[in-house]
Amino acid sequence: MSFRQRVISAVIGAATVAVLGLSASPASASVSDGFVSGGGDFDNDWGDEGPLSMNSNTRSNATCLWQQILWAEGANEQNGTDFDASDIDGVFGENTRHATMDLQRRWKLEDVDGIVGPDTFGYLDGRRLVHYDGSESGTLWMHYNGPTHHFYITRSGAGRYGFWEGSDNDNGTPIRYASYTSRNCS
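The chain above was modelled as a monomer; its predicted structure follows.
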């Protein structure tokens, strides 16, 4: 084989490996999608989400979803009381950071840093969401069953997660989609 043929063969081989590597990668939800999202089985959607912190996606409905989780989990605030419904405002401040660190300690996560990244979000995969209904449009209806509270959550046919503020979805509040770029929760 000539030098030129070896170079062409090597380039084709490298290109093939690159294409196969890309096509073998799992589909990934992320901040770049703009929403907490997923597809396929709902019990492994959140391990590639985040970050939410005092420096990233600080004011967002994704933060509001996380605060709903803190409330449902009974995470402790700075003053030692449970994170409550009045703390859910979609703003990742010091109180949310403290409650996040409380959960990270309880869950025995490696990084207790107050940042909600793939490990913290991913801890919930297969643990708290319980499917109770679906529709032909592909929308899944679930409960988030925390040890202290529960709330309703949905995943649209497009894969976007949404939630209702509080535990009762019949109270007239609209679904809030867990956007990383907008905030309309109260």
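The chain has one domain: 31-177.
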